[in-house]
Amino acid sequence: MILVIAFVAAVSAQPQRGVVVQDAPLLLLPDRSRAPLLFMEKGVQVDVIRREGEWFNITVHGSQWGDRTGYVEARYLRLIANLPPAENPGTPTPPLAIAPPTASDRNEPIAPKTQGVESRPPIQNPSTPAPASAPPVAAQPRTPAGQPAASAKLREIKIRGYVTEMRSPTDFDIEDYRITRDEAFVLDFENASPDVTFRLQDIRVGVELEIKGFLNEQTGELKAKAIKVDLEQFRTIKQTAFVSKAPEGIQLLDGSWAGDLRADGQTIRVTNTTNVLFKPTKREAKLAALRQKSADSSEDAEGFETLKTLDDVEVGMAMTYEGSRDRETGTIIAERIEFSSNDLEDGEAKLWKSLKVTTKEAQGFKPGELKIDHVGKFKLLTDVNVQQYVARVGQSLIPAYQRDLAPNDPRKIPFQFHVVQTDEINAFATPNGIVVVYSGLLEMLENEAQLAAILGHEIAHATHEHTWRGEQYHKKTRIGIALAGVVASAYGMRSLADLATMVNGAIVNGHQRTLENQSDRIGLEYMYAAGYDVRQAPDVWKLMVKKNGVSSTNFFWSNHDNEPTRRSYLMNELKNNYRDADFGRLHTNDEEYLRIRAAVTAAKNAKRRLKVS
Known about the structure:
Helix content: 25-40%
Strand content: 25-35%
Oligomer: single chain
Number of strands: 26
Number of helices: 13
Distance between the termini: 83 Å
Radius of gyration: 28 Å
Structural class: alpha+beta
């Protein structure tokens, strides 16, 4: 009945026009505690449906997301008399219309920037098909006002990345793009909920955004017509890492731990409200169940035990932290930290054994072969010096705690490094430490530090057990979704079965994305410990772009971000966690690398000449 009344009211009277007199949020319901649908700046004109006490029910027109109807507080809106309704309300100005910046808004001229480009990133599992690439949509050159540009070449693009430099909330950098605002643009949200709020003024270094707009290829300026914010980044973070060195930076004061702990490639702040505990493993929990708990035991009902001294935290232990990221500093404010022994679980041990590795030596002009069960066969590059060089660089990046484990320790990862012969630009690692580098990647890179960035990233996948953790993530939920898809398919409901498959993939890939970011962070730590210049890591993605162009990503199918996202993420990590680094002691080793790169090309060309003859 309510819907019918609303419809009758809508068709019986022409909506009155109104103008926003002060920056204001549009809410789904008249409730100030809700997350905004979008923000409207002063001067936005809207259709007013009706007034409900201290609220106006309004419609804001435009944008690729369609018209938005919601509520705005009456104090933010002034009714306009004798103004005709908007023409063609389905397609005009977007919901968030903002006046163009004046000279006083931006005092300095726009500095020319190099266009950031994008490529297809390495995948962890070569058997997984890469997402289809889609080139940017070509657009007719236009000025912001919609008139054809006289000389500037404009191209419509979409990028996703982390803010790397700030001048104002409407003038900032993502990677090499300078983002400015169009005359009108949309501020939209993903994963919105009442517990997280975000305003235009909350844009700052480290915030991840999706930008749609027109790129001026001469200046590198990207005028945003739409900005989308995934609010998931501001919710509680829960991540597991491994202790690579004795923890320091926190101390026990009056029975509570406090200080800044360096772990997982970032700073984790511990306060007097943070629970710092030991979590028993399955093996330890079974043993604990056999013991009689004493009356003064410090164990809680689940067997957790409070941390009494940092001496109890051993290198190689697992550390799970939970908290939220401070928007100003990027520091994780921890609510809970759990340390536990890192037992190799039976299922993970079976996974290692299933990935059996065999190699065949080269015979005459026939190249050697690398075979990894359940992964595939690869032709090994014939140059022994190249193979030894990559292995030497890789071994230098393995964390000390892994190298120091006894050969018969079940937790020791038997790392191997192999270069395979292919023009593709890729690298991957298996759970049992087999790191495969494609020769095409070696030909693209410019120095040894960039190779170390790739190898460190792949080593981190193995040391942090990403394949195993990915398989276990929401395992019961994913099994249930898969069964639902099977049932739907059996009853001929193809669309529901396809949707179940997509949601299942989204769960896995959403989790995989956090693991990729962790590999980037840990890879930087491995580089720095080995003496490599960590500033070379973001440049890898710039080279990817130069070589392959723009690659697209899809939430359902891709577990890798596109290149501006990856590069801007690394740039932020350098700002947040390496601002005090001693770069004078770091090296790139350009000369030796260039000799190796030439050897790679020579080995490939020798094979081609042999085929021709």
